[in-house]
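Hi there, hope your week has been kind to you so far. It would help a lot if you went through both lines with me. No rush at all, and the record is pasted right below:

***
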Amino acid sequence: MWDDTSLHWGRESVLQLQGRPIALVYWPELYRYGKELQWKGIKAPWCDWKFIVERYRRGSREAFWAEFTEENGTYMSYTKIASILRQQRMQADQEIVERAKAEYGDEFDVVFSYRKGNTHRVMTDPASIASKYRSRHPN
């Protein structure tokens, strides 16, 4: 349901256009051009699914469920998996912020800044800083 280029695509989706199923990966393109409140309402769960699918595809099915299985042997819920992944992203972003500050030193305020109107501001949001750092250091 996530991606129509995957072997797992079953040509099924709750969202359809003219009878054709639309994979989740394309939903932002559709919802952004409709009423803005539609995307605001669906963005958070869509992002959770995006990160779950990315983690699932990173390794094998067995590796994914080994990480996201409760002690009693049952699979964790979508909500719990999304929460764990969110915490991991926040921790990774914070580590990148610390690395960026150490790496850039006095230049940090210049490199990790933006303009708002006529004002120059230094980034403070860890996710934004991490995103900019990753764009400057592609693997």
About this structure: Helices lie at 27-31, 36-58, 61-67, 78-104, 108-111, 126-136. The two ends are 28 Å apart (CA to CA). The mean pLDDT is 88. The first strand starts at residue 16 and ends at 17.
